[in-house]
Design a protein that fits this description.
This protein is an alpha+beta fold. It has helices at residues 2-27, 40-48, 79-88, 100-104, and strands at residues 29-34, 56-61, 67-72. The protein has a domain at 28-110: Alpha-Beta Plaits (2-Layer Sandwich), CATH 3.30.70.100. The structure holds copper (II) ion.
């Protein structure tokens, strides 16, 4: 009988554990979108605009494909806010256009061609 209840307790623990980990997995979302930029310095600026911000788990920009990959917790930050943060750092995204002021304060080599036309 003792073995049985021990076994039951173990099952319950295992069940609770897998339930909790399934929940945390669900919390994070990964999105990919285009951000225009030129070089390694752009990469650093773009990624720094998100890294360490609340709700951001991962932020990686690919210089060659110009694709931004962000893993985030939607309960802490919205997709819109993510686009806005990148735009604030001077870079146009698919959804948000950087202000002319933010764009012109980028170093000369980083002033990319503004090919994206976000509304
Ligand atoms: Cu650059």
């Amino acid at each position: 009988m003792k073995t049985y209840s021990l076994f039951m307790a173990l099952c319950l623990m295992l069940f609770t554990f897998s339930f909790v980990s399934a929940q945390t997995e669900k919390k994070n979302r990964t999105i990919e979108f285009k951000v225009t930029g030129n070089c390694g310095m752009c990469k650093k600026t773009i990624e720094t605009s998100l890294k360490g911000k609340s709700g951001i788990k991962e932020a990686v920009w690919n210089k060659d494909t110009k694709m931004m990959k962000v893993t985030f917790d939607p309960s802490q930050i919205s997709e819109d806010q993510i686009h806005q943060k990148i735009a604030d750092s001077g870079y146009d995204t698919e959804k948000k256009k950087a202000s002319d002021k933010a764009y012109s304060s980028l170093p000369g080599c980083c002033q990319y061609k503004r090919t994206l036309q976000p509304k």
